[in-house]
Design brief:
Elements (H helix, E strand, L loop, with lengths): L6 E14 L2 E3 L12 E2 L5 E5 L2 E4 L15 E3 L3 H6 L7 E14 L2 E9 L1 E4 L8 H12 L4 E5 L10 E6 L3 E2 L1 H15 L14 E4 L3 E9 L2 E6 L3 E6 L4 E3 L4 E4 L4 E2 L2 E8 L2 E8 L7 E4 L2 E10 L1
Parallel strand pairs: 9-10, 13-18
Antiparallel strand pairs: 1-2, 1-7, 3-8, 4-5, 6-8, 7-8, 10-11, 11-12, 13-14, 14-15, 15-16, 16-19, 17-18, 20-21, 20-23, 22-23
Bound molecules: zinc ion.
């Protein structure tokens, strides 16, 4: 028997998903099926037996205490923001049950199912007909769907219902999307937007990255709060269809700098990609702060 007791009644955690034209996926591309509990599997291989690979999943109960397997979820929304995952896709509460393990990223669970979804503005196509078609993929899960109104995810941030279980499409959510698009259409001219720090970009097959710095033609961006890349600005295109910046490639992993910033008198030190100097402004948790000192690592 397992030392860790199974959690029979589900409880709530918070996570992010990749959501694209192919449907809903974990950040590692594992597909989530509507109306079916997500069951985590283990793909670690321990060795050979009779000439075939023996997967650890055959010998341990997922998630295993000494493995990295399981369905990952943050403790709550603030935790998901803190670990850098809240901007990586759509997000929402998730029910966990079966076997559970605590880890630095929150929980690793055996079974999970979405409780509700929140869609950030850069995850919806521009055309309303396309919005309705795409959202059908999420409606198939039969849980509430909300719109995140601000670009940056925040606990207590404004959200509007888009589709409610047992009720259907919400006039409020649809109205908001129409307003947003009408404004865009009625601009006298629509110049292509300029890529800047704080912008979110969609990296094909990888998820959403956040621009930390634009230095001439070099764009520095970050994924999962810790991985830093640089890429030429020419590699980014503004997709009118999807209404967001997109790129096919991550570019290069960048040099790291240990930077110190002062936030409301509190000194914080963290590692970030790119070449920075004291006095530069940097985005931290969606706010612009000034760097006080830099140490190259
Ligand atoms: Zn495992």
């Amino acid at each position: 028997m397992d030392r860790v007791p199974d959690y029979i009644s589900p409880f709530t955690a918070y996570r992010a998903w990749q959501w694209d034209s192919e449907g809903l996926k974990s950040m590692n591309h594992a597909a989530w099926t509507p109306k079916v509990a997500f069951e985590a599997t283990c793909d670690k291989v321990v060795g050979f037996a009779g000439g075939v690979n023996v997967a650890l999943a055959d010998v341990h109960h997922v998630p295993d205490e000494d493995c990295t397997c399981g369905m990952y979820a943050g403790i709550d929304f603030q935790h998901l923001i803190n670990i850098g995952y809240a901007s990586q896709g759509i997000h929402g509460e998730v029910l966990l049950w079966g076997k559970l393990e605590r880890c630095s990223l929150g929980w690793r669970a055996q079974y999970a199912y979405p409780k509700f979804f929140v869609i950030p503005p850069d995850h919806l196509p521009f055309q309303m007909i396309e919005v309705q078609r795409r959202v059908q993929q999420l409606i198939a899960y039969d849980v509430d769907i909300y719109l995140q109104i601000d670009r940056t995810p925040a606990v207590g941030g404004m959200r509007l219902p888009l589709w409610m279980k047992g009720y259907g499409w919400s006039q409020q959510g649809i109205g908001h999307l129409l307003e947003e698009r009408k404004e865009w259409y009625t601009r006298p001219t629509v110049p292509p937007p300029v890529l800047k720090a704080g912008d979110r970009i969609s990296v094909r097959d990888k998820g959403i990255a956040v621009v930390t710095q634009v230095d001439g033609s070099v764009v520095h961006f970050q994924m999962f709060g810790t991985f830093n890349y640089r890429q030429d600005v020419k590699e980014f295109v503004w997709s009118k269809q999807n209404w967001r910046w997109e790129t096919d490639t991550l570019g290069w992993v960048t040099s790291q700098s240990a930077v110190t910033v002062a936030v409301k008198g509190d000194v914080q030190r963290f590692t970030v990609g790119g070449d920075w100097k004291p006095g530069d402004k940097i985005m931290l948790d969606g706010k612009e702060v000034t760097i006080t000192s830099v140490k190259r690592t």
